Amino acid sequence: MKLSNRLNTINTLITESYDIIWDCCCDHGFLGMAILKRNLADKIIFVDIVPALMADLSKTLTRFSCAQTAKQWQVKCQDVGCLELTPSAKQLVIIAGVGGELLLKLVQQIIINNTNHDLSKLSFILCPVHHTYSLRKGLHKLGLGLVTEQIVLENKRFYEVLHVSFESEQPISSTGTIMWEENNTAHRMYLCQLIKHYTRMINKDPVYFQNVLNDYQQLVELKT
Ligand SMILES: C[S@@+](CC[C@H](N)C(=O)[O-])C[C@H]1O[C@@H](n2cnc3c(N)ncnc32)[C@H](O)[C@@H]1O
């Protein structure tokens, strides 16, 4: 099965092994299955809130598992916000394909619910649909730092993929830093789209959206 451009980018950002990788809001589970094939974690845990999806995924995984790989995956049907992380394990939590506001809420809940654990070995790969600016601000506020970030174009839509952790001391900027490639036409198009979008939003909350706009316009100035 061929992964979409967006899911493939997330997959390639995983360059080290983990005790546990959580494929959250996994839906069909394509991403987790690709990670399972790469043998990158002792356990891949698939999580989604829809029972029928998780029942289908369990069947598919069982069909393709041998005695060895059967121990390497688990399916949980639950709210991602209620994840119970494993204390002291090196864990990667992936959340992709949901709105930026929900995504931030889920990350906040995971952290609050697991504050008793040492979170230094925890990192997240996140790919929201829209609202990346407010997500980035929220992640920074939580004390997370940037590991890496990329812009992905899929079906004429732009996405930002962020790898963040508590160990990284590189601040997460609201508009992105290392993901912007100079002279990349698609990236310029994405920046134009963001500026047009936030210009349209100004009337809704002039003070907030003017600040957002100023931040993106500063990027344009840096690039010209
Ligand atoms: C569009 S799919 C994303 C699938 C895949 N991660 C991707 O990026 O292609 C969004 C999934 O998020 C799940 N979801 C939404 N809110 C959730 C929550 N609070 N906890 C668990 N799953 C959730 C939905 O059931 C749905 O299957």
UniProtKB/TrEMBL annotation:
Stretches assigned to coiled coil: none
PANTHER family (UniProt xref): TRNA (ADENINE(22)-N(1))-METHYLTRANSFERASE
InterPro entries, A to Z: SAM-dependent_MTases_sf, UCP028234
UniProt protein name: SAM-dependent methyltransferase
The organism of origin for this protein: Pseudoalteromonas porphyrae
One Pfam family this sequence matches: Methyltransf_18
